[in-house]
Amino acid sequence: DRETPKDNRLEQSDPDKREQLSIRDIVELQETGFIVRIQPPGTESFELQVSGQMLVAELHQVLMDHEITCHRTCFSLQLGGATLDSLTELHSIQGLHEGALIKLVEDSYSVRDARLHLRHVCDLLRSLDPADSYNGVNGSSLSYLTFYTRGDKGNVGLSSSEKEYVDCSPPEYILPGCKDRPLTPLQPIRDDWKPLQCLRVLTMSSWNPPPGNRKMHGDLMYLNVLTMEDRELNITSSTRGFYLNQSTAFNFNPKPAVPKILCHSLVELLSQVSPAFRKNFSALQKKRVQQHPYERFAAPFQVFTWTAPHGDHTLDCVRVEETHTSRMGQDKHTAGQSRDWNEELQGCRELPRNSLQDRLHRERSIFKTSSDFVAAATRGAVAVIDGNVMPLNPGEAPHMQMFIWNNLFFSFGFDISEHYRPLGGNAAAHAAAICDLRGVQVEILTTTPAYASVDTEGLHTLGTITIVPGLLEKSQEQSVIYGSNDYGSTVFTHPRFLELLDKTCKPLRIQRHQVLDQNNIPVELCSGVETKGILGNDGRSYILDLLRTFPPDLNFQFSETEEAKDVPEECQSFGYPQQHHHSLASLRPELIEAFVQHRYLVCEPGTRDTTTAGADMDLIVKACKAVGSVSDSCFDIRFNPDICSPGVRFSPEFAEEVQKQRKLLWDAAAFLLSNQIPALRDCLDHTALPMDGVTLTSVLHQHGVNVRYLGALLRELHRVEERERLSHIKRICISEVIIRSAKHIFRTYLQDVEPAAFSAAVSHFLNCLLSSSTCVLDSCSDELLSRRRSRRRRSHGSRVPLLTDSMWARLTPSELWGRIRTEAGDYYHYTIDSENIDEVIEKHDLQRISLLREIAIKTGIQVQLREYVFESRHRPVFGEEDVVNMFPVVKHLKPTATDATQLLQQAQVAVQQGLLKDGYELISQALTLFSSVCGVLHEDVCVCLRLLGRLSYILGEYALSHQEKAVMSSERVLGIDHPQTIQDYTYLALYCFAGGQHSTSLQLLYRARYLTLLVSGEDHPQVALLDSMLGLVLHALMEYELSLKFLQNALNLTSKYRGATSLRHAHSHHLLATVYETKGEFRSALQHEKEAYSIYKSQVGENHDSTRESSEYLKSLTQQAVVLQKAINHIYSNTPSACIPPPKFSTPSPPAILQQLNLTCGIILIPLSAKEVADLRTEMKGKDKVQVEELENHLLKQKDLRTAHKGQQN
């Protein structure tokens, strides 16, 4: 069978051969690179490792980052005298081979080039400054891993005497039982971030722009510089480079000054005239290139941090210019040029996707355009809020105004002209954007198998704020040729849209149906009636308003129309249906798939028996009818999205079908309550371990449960027998209900705040929410306002309104808490039976610092990094200066690489089947494709790196490199305190210990424990794992008292969350016994090991290996205890007798500790022979032909399956 695909492969058509060739090329180039020599002008050449896949433009960027050539931006690359095209891949350049010499040739500057050069130099001068990360700009974000790993690189394999000098004591706030939760350690002070000042001032000159006669001499712009030697310089940027001129602050003289030096680079000129600049810039670049690339690369989507220190505001000429010039929010390479976002997005989607190389190019283009689009849209939204954009309708009320900025359309989330009144008004208008985004996501993305074929050719969706070509030239009523613009009164259909949308019906499980228009004429649709089809002026077919992509959730209804007899008992027992704020509540796609799968499994046994027995097809027809299938011959469950749409009418002849569809929707709603919410007991066996609101939401969504079901989940948690073992889930759920309710209130609270009072209003809201103080807001801290008030009093005798007179300032803690309780009841249907926040915190053991983190992340608030005293009853916790910034909370699509996703899924299946080497290879291939499409700072790349690290460790290979990258990527992409980052820190600590870096392992575990305490508190299962690992590492470092503290806490938490008779609890007892044995306290050791033995005996029986090992250890402890007692008795007896040997206290061996660490983390190592390890290394480094062919066969099979599947559909 193995040879069949090879034979078939030879007979494939030419396109298939081209696809195989591209696969082979990618595999061969995955890790193979070659070295070229780079020859900069005026210096010696140097060697550079490059990849054949690299574009010349990418090599250009690499050289702009290289230590030797970083100060150059305006140059071209030449090979053998010929200039290289920037869009050419290196492997396709004739004559470019190992050792080839590429010359860097200086080019003439244009104004754009000069501005880019200045920006690049400014970036280099502040490359170590974390200000961009704190401010959330330029793709910068924080990473602290190297702060904890840099100290132990050379200390591998310390002797026992040297280990005594390792400082193992943790800060007080990390120790078990400590209630302090300091905030400042979240962002520790890094010595390597201390700026090396090269210049005092670098700014644009007031003599800009050059006059006409100087333009004729090649002047582009003028700069002012103040060096560290306090020398003022006026510099001319010309087409040939940079030189000093004779201008002063009040006298324009463009003639060259002494020394008359012309340098192509600004850095070269400054190095010539300022020794301090030359020295500090050289040191700065050495530090910069020592940073890990993952710390320096810009992330494709901006990550914002919720805390930041108050930093000094510095002069920055680039920032000034970008603020005051009309850049339209574009990136630095397209300044002043407006981009046609719709054309770019649609053009990317229309790229060919036949071969793997085509798909990679298409997906890379989609990803890059999408990330640029999100950045531009975010900047546009901020510009609109800041008042920097002129509205299209300035005469309207502010909340009704609309804006066009950079070819992007913006409006506020309000119900303009009562368009959403039938659906719920402003609440529906706000929810519509999210529903639309979710619908677009399913239409575009191909991340799950159910939607792999939904990326339909010819059907175009918009970025939610791009403009359909030609739409502004006519009214929307004239443009719509499919769907309805008035909720079913007038309905249109069009053959072109029916044909295109019909292809999406099966994967999206949408039933093709008919509705009646205002003339009672049936109109056929393949989507919700609100979905509008528009033919753009560019000839493309666009669909808008995908509000009803998923079936409605009948448990939450805007208006009560259901009779009690129609509601299933499961729903009634949970108190549903409930009234909701709007009628756009829909079921999640994960729930639909789970529901369909459940129906299939319920009926599959019967149909399988009948078909094998050759029985009548009537039973299959009945089974299909029973599950609600639209087909009589196969299970094909689909939903009518318009069943509950207001204003939509159906023909009387379809009344029975409509009733069946309504029952199907009720069955799905009941399935969510009866199956999916109870299924969240996965948290009992710790397969899912949420730590905060984000991870809880992710777990809920994986089960298809919407967050609005938090009240139902809390009621279920209260009913279950194991409620104590799920107390951490209940705690997070209650926190989430409170914070989300507060977020809903905060959204309307800010709408009436004047811009000058934002910081005061936000700090006041946080005080009302989290402070125990009842102090009122200060009248005003602004001296200017008070002086102006006093002047007006003297002149007019009237009082100027104070900040405390504003509506927002009248909010009190009790009023806010009452509104939170009301919102929790109305939206989440959960009753908070506490009179204030203090009572809730005490009752459910919540943490104020965790609540602050949650509200800050959800609302975009950035608070000052300092210690907050929440318990003070005499002064407010937050002042105006504590609100540092407010960031936009952005929800966007997440494009990815489809082929890489398939490879990753196949790898996970292979690993589950025990084919670890095959899994490693497939993950390596997936990593290459993900990195090619998305870059290295992406969540999917994190997943691959994490899995590669785990597999490398299990197979006995070096895992640190993969896991270090995974940690840095998680910090940069998810955040420094995200639960996934904490987990990555934990596994990196394990791999460090295995590599002999014991003190680094300890510091990483301390960091992980601190972050866990900050995010979720000490009463959490994750803390039990961390404390077990900390106890073991401290045991290895012979810090026995500290080790016992952590292990004892781990024992208590394991007993609570795993059960007193669990094997984990037995293992915790055993770990304590080993430490007590090392200390010579055999009585305590015996006590704990007896507990472990009794658990093993009762759970797995006397003949199990664990029980036997525990029994042997008990005997050993008993013997040692007897020897010790004899020695003690002999000492006290003072009788001369035969010499009794002193008892031997065991010292921990690193291999034994590592074995226990592996057991704690649930990792089983596979012993390999030396030959197997050597073979594995060979396989990992070089890809041989067999692996190439296997990958080809794998992808060809996937293609054949897709082709066969399409054939069956047709």
From TrEMBL:
It comes from the Eukaryota. It holds the Pfam family CLU. Gene3D superfamilies: Hypothetical protein (hspc210) (3.30.2280.10), Tetratricopeptide repeat domain (1.25.40.10). GO terms for cellular component: cytoplasm. Transmembrane segments: none annotated. Keywords: Cytoplasm. GO terms for biological process: intracellular distribution of mitochondria. Residues 319-557 form the Clu domain. One of its GO terms (molecular function) is mRNA binding. CDD domains: CLU-central. PANTHER family: CLUSTERED MITOCHONDRIA PROTEIN HOMOLOG (PTHR12601:SF10), EUKARYOTIC TRANSLATION INITIATION FACTOR 3 SUBUNIT EIF-3 (PTHR12601). This is Clustered mitochondria homolog. It comes from Lates calcarifer (Barramundi).
